[in-house]
Amino acid sequence: MAKNKFLAFCHVLQSVYCRQFLIGKTNRIASVFLLSLLPLVASA
């Protein structure tokens, strides 16, 4: 029984970690994209 609970905990931990990693990657891409648009907006 304890082993199943431990595996369930590991699965939850893994899904949260993967989600955080994907969110971080998306935020980085969005930040780079917005920063690259900044000179165009400033010159307009």
Q: What does this protein look like?
A:
With 44 residues, the chain is an all-alpha fold. 95% of the residues lie in helices and 0% in strands. The protein contains 1 helix and no strands. The protein has one helix at 2-43. The longest helix has 42 residues, at 2-43. It is rod-shaped, with a radius of gyration of 19 Å. The protein starts with a helix and ends with a helix.
**What portion of residues is helical?**
over 70%
According to DSSP, the number of beta strands is 0
Question: Residue ranges: pLDDT <50 for 5 or more in a row?
Answer: none
Topology order in helix (H) and strand (E) letters: H
Shape: rod-shaped
* Mean pLDDT over the full residue set: 78
Largest sheet: none
Distance between the termini: 65 Å
Strand content: under 5%
Quickly count the helices. Answer: 1
Structural class: mainly alpha
Radius of gyration: 19 Å
Characteristics of this structure?
44 residues, mainly alpha, 1 helix, 0% strand, rod-shaped
Could you provide a short overview of the structure?
By secondary structure, the chain is an all-alpha fold.
Topology:
Layout: H1 2-43
